[in-house]
Every structure is written in C-alpha cells, then in structure tokens.
Fold Signal recognition particle protein.
Amino acid sequence: NLSQRLARVVKTIKGEARLTEANTQEMLREIRIALLEADVALPVVRDFVAKVREKALGQDVLQSLTPGQALVGIVNRELAELMGGKAAELSFATQPPAIILMAGLQGAGKTTTVGKLAKWLRENLKKKVLTVSCDVYRPAAIEQLRTVTEQAGADFFPSTPQQKPADIARDALQWAKTHYHDVLLVDTAGRLAIDEQMMAEIAQLHAQLKPIETLFVVDAMQGQDAVNTARAFNETLPLTGVVLTKLDGDSRGGAALSVKAITGKPIKFVGVGEKLTGLESFHPERMANRILGMGDIVSLVEEAQKAVDEKSAKALADKLKSGSRFDLNDFLQQLGQMKRMGGLSSLVDKLPAQFQAAAGQADMGKAEKELKRMQGIIHSMTRAERAKPDQIKASRKRRIATGAGVQVQDVNRLLAQFDQMQSMMKKMQKGGLAKMMRGMKG
Ligand code: GDP
Ligand code: MG
C-alpha cells in the first residue's frame, strides 16, 4: 500500500548523502508511482511531484540534515499541505443548536458517524447533543440511529418512515431549541449512486436548516470514486467538510490525499473502525506521517534543528568534550530547549506508534508540570550556585525554595535528579559524545 511503498522510498532517500539531479529524479519517480498506485488522481500527483521538485531544488539544506533527510522533510510537508495543511475544525459560530447535516451515499457510514460524532462532541467538547434521522426509506435506519445514539449517551429525537424529512427536521430543531441542545446532528438517507431525488431532498433540508456544518461522509475504500462523488455533491450542496470512513480497512489511502485538492473541502474527521470510538479528528500532518510510515520523526528532527540554538549546542558539546562538568546552567538550557520544542507531550506525539504506546503510559501532564517546577527552582539560583550545585547548603536551599515557591524537599529532589543526570553525562563523555550525537542525527 501507499504507506509501505512510500516508507520504502523514504528509507532510500534518507540514506542518500548527496542529492543529485539523477537520484532526485529517480526518487520523485518512485513517489509518483506510489501515489498513482494508491489511486490518487493523476493531476493531483503531477502537481504534487512538481511542487516537491521545485522545493527540493531551491532548498538550503540544513547543515545537520543530510540532503536525503531534507527531501523527506519536503515530501512530508507537501503531503500535509496537499491535505489542507492545518487541521480543520468544526465550526460552532452560530446560535445554538449548531446543526450538522450529514450527506453521502448509502453505506458510506453516515449513521455510524453520527453516533461517533455524538460521542466525540459529548466527550471532547462537552456538548449536549440531539440526533435525528431523516432516512424515511428504511425503517431499520432510524432504529440504527437510535441504538448508536444511546450508546453514545446522547439524546435521540424519534421519527417514523411515514413522515416527511422536512417535517422531521423542523420538529427536531424545535425540540433542540426548547431543550437547550448545543448540537443537532441530522442523519439523512443515501442512495447507491447520486440521483436527482436524493439531491433534491438533501438540498431542501439544507435550505431549510441552514446548517453550520454540512459533512460529506464517504468510504475511503472507494478511492478516486469517493473523491468524484464528493465533488459532485459539492456542486449541488455547499459542503463544509468531509468525513472519510473505513480508513481502518485496506483502503489504498489515495482518497485522503486528493479530497482537498479536488473538492476544495477539508477532511475534518476520519473513521477508523466500526465502533463508536473509531473516529479521529483529521490532522494533515499526522496523516502525512502515517502515510510515510515513520511517525513524526522527520519533523521532530526539523524542529529540533529549529529549536536548538546550534551554537549553544556546540558550546555544550565542546565543554563536555573538554572534560568539564555538566552543570545546572547547562541543565537549565536543556530544559528550555525542550520547552521550545513544544514540551514533552508534543514530543511524544511525534514518536512512531510503538514508542507512543509506551510513552502514553506515563502521565505527560504531570511530567510537564514537573519540568516547569524544575525550571523555576533553577531560576531561583544564582549563576554561581548553578555552576557548583554541591555547594548549595541548607540556608541557600531555603532561600531558593522560597524564591521558587516550593518546599525545601523539592529543591533536594531536583539536586538529586541533577546528580544522577550528571553522572549519566559523565558516562556519555567517556563513551564519546560526538559519536553519540552523530548516531542520533543519522
Ligand atoms: P450509512 O448508510 O451511510 O448510514 O452507513 P452506515 O453507518 O450504516 O455504515 C455502513 C457500514 O459501514 C456499517 O456496517 C458500518 O459498521 C460500517 N462502517 C462505518 N464506518 C466505518 C469505519 O470507519 N470503519 C469500518 N471498518 N466500518 C465502518
Ligand atoms: Mg444510515
């Protein structure tokens, strides 16, 4: 699949010490094939490859990145850009209830997605949610929505196949208003293919409800067809976003890449399973990384390069190489760098999945707080104290603790942690710091 294929290309690129016209060309060709095989539309592929080439040629390669890594970075960024760049969020900029109208073909996953969204909105945004089904063609469809709504812990507005969709929508809206629901999710009927009656019906619902969000639900396994259907809907119905379902299946992934380029509408959510928990808000960058199959390692490297003041990193390396001790001034600087890189949790976000699982077990919020506290304590020390922490005695500890607004035992703990770190640093010095750093970058 796309991910495996691109991951293979990426591996080759990374190893390239030098990018020549010839090997760049070769790799762009591989990328092109990978995208086409994933069922990405040809014009989108052409455009994409052209952009990557243009950026690659004009690129000042960061000293510490190999040209190969730099190219991977470009591919990664352009993939994210292709999918809309930044995550597109649901809008609630309206008098409540915010109405979300679902559109899409039969079997796309509309009803399931309404259930998932109800749960997501309740849990993540603390919204009071009402759902209603305007699918009057299949009695089972209304029952299905009732079931998933109950599972989601949201409110359900009953309807029957004897009613008209417009009347159901009107009554549900009235109910939502008088019962102070924040969000009204409107499920609709789909057909096997786009047909006039379905389009007329949903266009009427749209005109009547004036939803703040009109989400087109589409099955990722349909590949280019999915994207073409989205485009056709978008011509009749002003969509605000797309939900790409069944990304957990063996879809080739191409739909995710071309939806934005072809419809102009962002993907807002992806469905990744039949269960109600199988919904994720869509982050183009994360998706790009997933497609490249390598976690966010590339942008991690890039951000590290950005955040770490290269000069000061070198100064530290030199200092350690010369056999000097790593002191609290250095430690403080390192903590600051970590913060500039977006803190611990954002670092964890960027790790490949297998590491994320392990890191997820640690309490990141707590760790971040701890880091901040450590910084506060070190800030309350004088430079001289930071340079010679072992000279910090009881009275100084009290002063530092007061300055940082912590207890003396917190200062003690920090000093003990620092002690450990210092001896670790010593070992690294012996093992050859330069060698280790090279290893990290490669
Ligand atoms: P609707 O006709 O558009 O309302 O589609 P449904 O919500 O009834 O879903 C059709 C089928 O797709 C059902 O069997 C769902 O369980 C399944 N489905 C929906 N979303 C997903 C998803 O993200 N992943 C997987 N694997 N199946 C899904
Ligand atoms: Mg349905």
